[in-house]
Amino acid sequence: MANFSGRPAYLQIADDLRSRILDGALRGGDKLPTEAEMMADYGVSRIVVRQAIDVIRGEGLVVSQRGVGVFVRDQQPRTRRILGDLYAQRATGSPFAAAARASGQSPEWEYQSRQTTAPQAIAERLGIESGADVMRTHYRFFADNQPVMLSTSYESLDLTRGTPVEHPEAGQVKGVVARMDSIGVHITHVIEDVQARAPRPYEAEALQVPAGVPVLYVERTYFEGQRPVETADIIVSADRYTFSYAVPIPIRSTNR
Amino acid sequence: MANFSGRPAYLQIADDLRSRILDGALRGGDKLPTEAEMMADYGVSRIVVRQAIDVIRGEGLVVSQRGVGVFVRDQQPRTRRILGDLYAQRATGSPFAAAARASGQSPEWEYQSRQTTAPQAIAERLGIESGADVMRTHYRFFADNQPVMLSTSYESLDLTRGTPVEHPEAGQVKGVVARMDSIGVHITHVIEDVQARAPRPYEAEALQVPAGVPVLYVERTYFEGQRPVETADIIVSADRYTFSYAVPIPIRSTNR
DNA sequence: ATAAATTTGTTCGTATGTATA
DNA sequence: CTATACATACGAACAAATTTA
Fold first, then answer.
1. Does residue B255 register a pLDDT over 50?
2. Which of residues A55, A72, A89 is at a domain's end?
3. Quick check: is B254 in a domain?
4. Chain A closest CA to B5's CA: distance in Å?
5. Same structural domain for residues A139 and A208?
6. CB–CB of B90 and A201 under 8 A?
7. Is B114 left (phi over 0), alpha (psi -120 to 50) or beta?
């Protein structure tokens, strides 16, 4: 490969492939040239071609299939999970199920509850002492039989002990808001802290996150006034979800 | 390296390094063994060691410095950008500046406005005809003289033409809510669609996103009732920001 | 149903370049 | 200036998965 600039060959090839993808010359599902073809086209060794592919795979633009080829990833439609639906009645189901059904998927889930003690970070979020008793529930959510969301929920047992909802999801299935309503705890608002990062290996495995795709990581806490009621960590593959928030803007009382 | 399982050597080494980092045996800022040391330690060739490092660098766990070594990335505190601050007065400044100041940073920004026509996607978000006149403004936001947020904002010129706020940010600096207030458009709510993905090269360059770190990508639209008023694309490095949303839960009127 | 060809994945060796201490 | 350490790049071989003959 004629190397006029000082830029490494593998980056120039990555640039070329990337622009062909982003410009639309290569579309979702299209097959890239084979490594052998690119070696000839660009006049470089195999290691350079593979490094170039590594780069754009790390950007989530292509996926490799051993024995077959490298393909442009096509944008699947994202499930839109909406919080703060305007004009909505009080939520009675889980936000997950609503989002899945709105996307024409059939939602299902597994869960596993266990009483344990609150780690430092969770205790702070729930406003309780570190080490206090909590109910921890791991959820795995499925859409069309594919796992799409992982969640770990914590509730202080001071709140639910001895009530019909001490064990989440026991009996009928409803969301946190409705469950808490049923024991006289009336949730007023929810705070979600949204972050993104590369998946941990078990997350990539569990959620089938393709290489180069990050996860959305959400810390959610439900409140009754100033008092935290439930908190959860939520993880989804970023190429499957859009998290949508509708937030009211308060009306200014004075016109300074 | 003794390879009992069928798992490739570079993945086993990556697993080992990853667990040493996540377990805390290697902490932020610590230097990994050199490639030569790892070749001896694990009994593999250099290419295997480098592939292992490539893996954990792609996960955002380490950064390489040529001529120096490979170091564990340390978690810098994230700026928390809050939307829906409860008990807040009507916003008069930009959410960006508020978040920066709350983190003890000094916010600044550059912008460039230009009249253009609405592309398809923007027209849909603004509820106008594709090709209609819009004012487009590119922003680059800085905290402590480092670029930390990119934004592209669109407003329909049908709304602002001939008003004092036709050019965003001309004159005094205030947020969209206050600007629109001043021409009698009273924003009622904002919708933010949050996604994450690997950065484009120019984004990684502009925002100094380290390898293995995704970006948060937000489509924000301000509304006056049902009518969209302004929409913007917002991009930040995911290792610098937490986006926080406080969403009220409506009170159920009927107890079915 | 088998064998051969194709294609990507893993791993070795070697050499040279570039940035830092 | 020299040694160290990571970056780029050549060639070669075999493995594993898939497709084709």
1. no
2. A72
3. no
4. 18
5. yes
6. no
7. beta
- The string over B11-35, giving b where at least 16 C-beta atoms fall within 10 Å of a residue's C-beta and e elsewhere, is ebbbeebbeebeeeebeeeeebbeb
Among candidate residues A72, A87, A107, the one where a domain is terminated: A72
Sequence-ordered strand ranges (E) for B90-240 = 107-117, 133-143, 146-156, 189-197, 215-224, 227-237
Helices A46-58 & A9-22 angle (0-180, nearest 10): 50
Residues A173-191: tens digit of each pLDDT: 578 898 899 899 999 999 9
Domain range enclosing A15: 9-72
A57 and A103 both lie in a single domain: no
Q: Are residues A202 and A112 in the same domain?
A: yes
Same domain, B88 and B127: yes
Domain match, B37 and B97 both:
no
Same domain, B16 and B134: no
Shortest-distance nucleotide from A9 CA to C1': D8
The pLDDT of A76-99, averaged and rounded, is 82
Interior angle at CA A177, CA A92 and CA A78, nearest 5: 70
Residue type at A212 in one-letter notation: G
Which of A186, A196, A247 is opposite residue B190, by nearest beta carbon? Answer: A247
| Residue A223 per-residue DSSP state | E
Determine, for residues A188 and B58 on separate chains, whether the beta-carbon distance falls below 8 Å. no
Q: Taking Cα atoms as reference points, which of A44, A42, A45, A49 lies closest to residue A64?
A: A49
The verdict on pTM exceeding 0.85 is yes
CB-CB neighbors (< 8 A) of B245 in chain A? 83-84, 191-192, 194, 245, 247
* pLDDT given at position B173: 58
CATH of the domain at A121: 3.40.1410.10
- Structure token pair of residue B210: 């380290």
Q: Does B196 touch chain A (CB under 8 A)?
A: yes
* Contact: A191, B245; criterion CB under 8 Å: yes
Same domain, A108 and A30: no
CB B150 within 8 A of CB B216: no
